[in-house]
Specification:
The structure is a homodimer. Chain A is an alpha/beta fold. Chain A has 2 domains: about 90 residues, Arc Repressor Mutant, subunit A (Orthogonal Bundle), CATH 1.10.10; about 110 residues, 3-Layer(aba) Sandwich (Rossmann fold). Helices cover about 45% and strands about 15% of the residues of chain A. Chain A contains 10 helices and 9 strands. Chain A has a 7-stranded mixed β-sheet, sandwiched between helices. A two-stranded antiparallel ribbon of chain A has the order 1-2. Chain A is globular.
């Protein structure tokens, strides 16, 4: 894994895109980044869009189109400098610098997320966890303190986190969301299986494995129907 | 939470859709189902598409279009019978009956998933977990045994699972995937941050919180750029 600190040195300033960038493009950028980090770590210096296609399964034309939202990349006949491309994509996504994150819900899932190594590798640092359960408050998990949820507003004035991970039960998710927004949170990664209602200046992404499993369940049956024909 | 056993009694056979159903439609079906279950549990008998829009944020025309892939639903002027719609959507997604699932990777994330209450509520039962770490093999977590990964093929001849949850580190994910496919798995929910290579008869859905966080990180900055203007 390349030290992402190198992003800073190599990253150029990328101008703001002129149009709204589609979310699937942003998702694919993270996939490219993943491969570029690994390639950089193995000492590969340049890469072609054809090789990106071979490695990621995303076709070369799509790759070039995705990058075109953010300016000029690569050199004809030479390809893309791995370190430079890695740095620019990290900067586009604003994951070239450390971002403080707070987590609400120090249950099984929350604890697993606190210990997830990929977060730090991508410069997401969970700085504090919050819970309302007296049995969890005061615990120290993976070097992270679990604080009383009632202290969220006060503590985030100091922490200054704008991103939160929400790992609370569905019936608590909306009320905690309102507390998060009041405390200055502007982006929420929601693991609770409900749709959160938020004002327009707050962004939410949902991680729902139940939804994913239900889609798989459907696709599995669809595949079998085809085989039977 | 309504007992999903009631699905069986109420569900009608839904004919196979004539065309390939878009994945976003399937994802929205799981959202509708979520609300229908809660509504049914609170004793609500019928619902209009306008109310679905109010509750889920998905517009009424989209809701009707999503259902139209699967036949006729609801009665003009009356709306939709909650229990019936719930049963039919569950049957469409094939989550009206218990499905055995195996989990590979009994680390922090895997253990949290084993204890996740939403799985059983949606009739997904993790029947066995597998790991290759001798310190984890033989453990009994959330009433689930952790077995030696080398026994995957043998044990799945008995278990008959076709869906697997993959919660192993990125560097092990592809080789474990190949073992899963060999053992009869046809659908994989992948938590490892890599794209798995699978033959065409196997379906994969990826859960990547790093990807989701990176998209949030981008959207957060985009929002601030707009505010500054």
């Amino acid at each position: 894994m390349a030290n992402l600190e190198t992003y800073r040195a190599d990253a150029r300033n990328v101008p703001a895109p002129s149009n709204k960038v589609p979310i699937p493009t942003l998702e694919r950028l993270t996939t490219y980044l993943r491969y570029l980090i690994d390639l950089g770590a193995s000492g590969v210096e340049t890469i072609s869009s054809a090789e990106i296609e071979r490695q990621t399964g995303i076709n070369a034309a799509q790759f070039r189109k995705d990058l075109s939202h953010f300016g000029e990349f690569g050199k004809p006949g030479v390809g893309y400098n791995v370190t430079e491309l890695e740095g620019r994509i990290a900067r586009i996504l604003q994951i070239h610098k450390v971002q403080p994150i707070i987590l609400v819900g120090a249950g099984n899932l929350g604890s697993a997320l606190m210990g997830y190594p990929g977060l730090k590798e991508h410069k997401f640092h969970i700085v504090t966890a919050f819970d309302s359960d007296p049995n969890k408050i005061g615990k120290h998990l993976w070097n992270i303190d679990v604080q009383d949820l009632r202290r969220l507003g006060d503590l985030n004035q100091v922490l200054g986190a704008r991103i939160a991970i929400l790992a609370v039960p569905a019936n608590a998710a909306q009320s905690v969301t309102e507390k998060l927004i009041e405390a200055g949170i502007r982006a929420i990664l929601n693991f609770a299986p409900i749709l959160l209602r938020v004002p327009p200046h707050v962004v939410v992404r949902n991680v729902s494995f139940l939804q994913e499993l239900a889609v798989l369940s459907y696709q599995l049956t669809e595949g079998e129907r085809k085989t039977e024909k």
